[in-house]
Amino acid sequence: MSTPEFALYVEGLTVSFNGFVAVNDLNLYVEKGETRVVIGPNGAGKTTVLDLICGRTRATSGSIRFKDIELTSLSEHRIVRAGVGRKFQTPSIYETLSVRENLEVSFPRGRTVFGALAFRRTADVIERVEEVAGQIFLADRLDDAAQLLSHGQKQWLEIGMLLMQEPELMMLDEPVAGMSVSEREKTAELLNRIGQDRSMIVIEHDMEFAQRIADRVTVLHQGRVLAEGSMDHVQNDPRVIEVYLGH
Ligand SMILES: Nc1ncnc2c1ncn2[C@@H]1O[C@H](COP(=O)(O)OP(=O)(O)OP(=O)(O)O)[C@@H](O)[C@H]1O
């Protein structure tokens, strides 16, 4: 049996807020190319773990290693440059810009809105924008203002903005919240496709959706790992049923 290659090593990760320990001595290992779904009751620490990995929140102790880079001491933008992309629950797209412009500003060379609008639409940018627009089901909406998109399409656009940076680790917080049934279907298809080339961590409450995208599932409870493994394994764990699934 070959030894798994991990993209992300989280060890002994702890953060406390005024004495309240939100993440408690957490270990988490995500393989290259793996899609890990993180579930758990409200307040379990799921969002805080993503905040710690992307540098938005500083750890009290512990280590987060990604491709041999220690992330706990890096700034948020350096973590992005190291190849970690994060999508928050509420889309942070530019409503008045077109879909095309939103994707262009996310191209690594055009870091700011102004910089991106000023930069030349070189063949590689045009090609990348069209490729990503196709992936996120918005190829025919490139010239529409982002504000005209549905809620689900805005979520896809933000995923597309992350894809422009070609992250090796992509983290998504409840990507299908508020989506219609057909949008959920397409999002599962999208995540399964983009998850083939990178590692992903997805926080999800919808178990049916989680089942469709997860390689493995981690259940958090009170800042610790309560259970981990295949969806079938965690769904049948009596402790998981007691604290989460039974409610
Ligand atoms: N900056 C902060 N200051 C103080 N407390 C915080 C802070 N961030 C998170 N917490 C607390 O840490 C705990 C974990 O919160 P977190 O948002 O990570 O949970 P979660 O598992 O994502 O929950 P949900 O499913 O409700 O989103 C909560 O009790 C929350 O109130």
From TrEMBL:
- Extract one GO molecular function annotation from the record: ATP hydrolysis activity
* Residues annotated as domain ABC transporter: 8-247
| Any one GO CC term of the record | plasma membrane
Alphabetical list of SMART domains matching this protein: AAA (SM00382)
Top-level taxon of the source organism: Bacteria
UniProt entry keywords in alphabetical sequence: ATP-binding, Cell membrane, Membrane, Nucleotide-binding, Transport
PANTHER family assigned: CONSERVED COMPONENT OF ABC TRANSPORTER FOR NATURAL AMINO ACIDS-RELATED (PTHR45772), HIGH-AFFINITY BRANCHED-CHAIN AMINO ACID TRANSPORT ATP-BINDING PROTEIN (PTHR45772:SF8)
Q: Please name the NCBIfam families in this protein's record.
A: urea_trans_UrtD
Which protein, by its recorded name, is this? Urea ABC transporter, ATPase protein UrtD
Organism of origin is Orrella dioscoreae
Give the lineage.
Bacteria, Pseudomonadati, Pseudomonadota, Betaproteobacteria, Burkholderiales
